[in-house]
Structure formats: C-alpha cells, structure tokens
Fold:
Amino acid sequence: MEKYIILNNGVKIPRLGFGTDYLTGEECKQSVISAIETGYRLIDTAYVYKNEKEINKAVHDCISRGIVKREDLFITTKTSFHLSGEKETRRCFEESLNNLGLDYIDLYLIHQPYWDRLDWREHTISTYRVLEDLYSEGKVKAIGVCNFYYVAFLNSIARIAPQINQIECHPQRQYKKFIEDAKKYNIQPMAWGTLNQGCLFESDIIKNIAKKYDKTEAQVAIRWNLQYGCGIALVRSEKKERIEENFNVWDFELSQGDKKEIDRLDGTGRGRWEDECGMSTLPIGNAPQGKFWKKMHSFVTVPEVKVLTCKLFGFVPFLKKVRINNRITKIYLFGILVLKIDKKL
Ligand SMILES: NC(=O)c1ccc[n+]([C@@H]2O[C@H](COP(=O)([O-])OP(=O)(O)OC[C@H]3O[C@@H](n4cnc5c(N)ncnc54)[C@H](OP(=O)(O)O)[C@@H]3O)[C@@H](O)[C@H]2O)c1
Structure:
C-alpha cells in the first residue's frame, strides 16, 4: 500500500497521521517528537487543542536535528469552533501560524460547520471564503472541513473545491454513506477517532483478526481504515511504544473476508461525535436523524433541493379568561409567528 495519497489539487498527503487532541505541554511535545522519529509525517492539531506551540517546538526540534525537512511534514490545523467570517477567521489563522512557527499550513480545515447556530450556513460560507483566500495567497496548501455531512451544500458554495472532509470513522461507526458522498464530489475523507478512543479493543471480531495476522487490535483497526474506511487515518497516543505500534501497519493486508466480519461491528458501540451532539439513534448509512439532527433538520434546507422555501415555525394562539369580581371577562390572544425564508445560494 502506498503511504501517500494525491489530493484533487495534486498535493501529496500521508495516509497515516498523528493526532494530538488532548495532548498538551511537555507530553505533547515529546509525543510529536516520537511520532516524527517513528515516521509519521502528518501531524493533526487545531486551534482549540491549545497545543500548537508545543507542536512548534517538536517540529522545529526534529528539523534542527535533521530528522525531517519542513517540506517533508504535513501540518494540519483548524479554525476555532466559535470564530467565523473574514476578520475572526483571519485572526485565528494568523495566530495558529504564529503558534506553529510556520510560514504556511499544509491543510486548513473548518473544525465544524457551526451547527449550533441557526445561521450555520452563512457562518460556514463566510469562513470558507477566507480559507479559499488563504489558499489563493499560498498560505495553505489544501483546505477543507471536518464533521461535515452535507457535502452537497459544501460543493454548491465552494469556489475552490475542498480537498478534505475529516470525519469520525472506525469499525463501530463506518459512516459509509458520508464516505461515498465525499468521494462523489472528489473530496478525500480523513478519519478521526480511528481507534474509537480505545473502545474497539473490547471486540472479539477485531481480537480474532489481530491474532490471525499476529498484529494488535489497534493495528487491525488502523489498517481497516486505510483499506476499507476513509483511506487516510489519524491516530493518537501519548506512549512511545504505542506510537510505534500504530505506525507498524504496512506489512499486512486485511482480506475481503475480514472486511465482511468487521462490517458486522458497524453500529455497535457509540461514536464520540454522537455523544458530543447528544445523538443516540443515528442510523448507519443514512442521513443523521438523532435528536440533535431532528432539531437541525427543522431549520436546514439543502440548497440543491430547494430554491425558495418559507417556513412557518410556530403560531401559538391561546385564549385566556380572567374574571374580576365575577363580572368582567377579558380575553387575551397571544401569537408567535416566525417566518424563515431560504433562498438558493
Ligand atoms: N476534526 C475533529 O472534529 C476531530 C475530532 C476528534 C479527533 N480529531 C483528530 O483525530 C485524532 C485521533 O482521534 P482521537 O484522538 O479522538 O482518538 P483515537 O486515536 O481513536 O484513540 C486514542 C486513544 O486510544 C489509545 N490508544 C492509542 N494507541 C493505542 C494502542 N496501540 N493500544 C491501545 N490503546 C491505544 C490512546 O491512549 P494512550 O494515549 O494512553 O495510548 C487514546 O486514549 C485526534 O487526536 C485529533 O487530532 C479530530
């Protein structure tokens, strides 16, 4: 298996990346150094991980010792959750660039498409425009999004096509539909939570396959993602021996039979994305329909489908009778009317 993939703009990206969520301080620096020494070339961070300065130290330590050159590394970072639009996104990007001590970022992603806001589409568009500008200015080599399940929407707004959609993906949450959708628009999916944060290790299916190849469960899960999941996977560990173990996945191949077995795990266990969004009933392979999504769907229209829609969110009339001294009756009428108009973008 090739260790790199070529993105839709010709940029070469490593298939296996080192994740740094939850890693901070000296522990983060040492883990990133171990990762680079082991052979990882993709390092994934984010503004909100608050560890870009440690990654800066680790990266420059490795460069100064001649282990890698800047151009060998592929550094990914992401916008902040709550910052959007021209001014805030620019500021956030410049801060990340400064924290990382770099003059360009290899991949810059919108961390999530502001789905906690009613006007998430406007925030996504204005932020994505900044990513496009940064790309045109040569400050980032590739752009994209994370956790973005409306790829058709993304495709409809993009003036410069995104290269990556980073989503949760592992044997227990395979999100095949989202991977297919991304590929349909020539966007490369990238997996986070490759080990489902350690939860996969309870599975007998993974354990048996691992035994068969004399590999560990983690190696099977990573290999599954590279062969049958997203094709690019991120994995995190703070332990040197696990960092090395997780990178040792190039010398075996999972069969179609193994794939079928692992397919049986899809939908077992809960994904972190669902936990964080309060979704407990996400049907696999379909558009998300958990509690969180139902709420979102009531506000969301996919522009590909609707040109102009008017939505009446609520008209709540009620009567109230008030008797004063048993003689006067007053009637009040209250109403709330919310009208939302969506236009095709
Ligand atoms: N875009 C997004 O919204 C988003 C969201 C989440 C994550 N991410 C990115 O994706 C990366 C990976 O995802 P993740 O950090 O959520 O989780 P993950 O890589 O699925 O799992 C990490 C957990 O697995 C354990 N582990 C690692 N290797 C192991 C091994 N060989 N055997 C047993 N346990 C092992 C680690 O513990 P030890 O450290 O103790 O080894 C850690 O607790 C993140 O670090 C981040 O960069 C992106």
In short: The chain has two domains: 4-295, 297-343. Residues 297-343 form one domain. Residues 19-21, 44, 111, 146-147, 166, 192-198, 216, 218, 234-239, 242, 245-246 surround NAP (CB under 6 Å). Confidence is low (pLDDT under 50) at residues 278-289, 294-309.
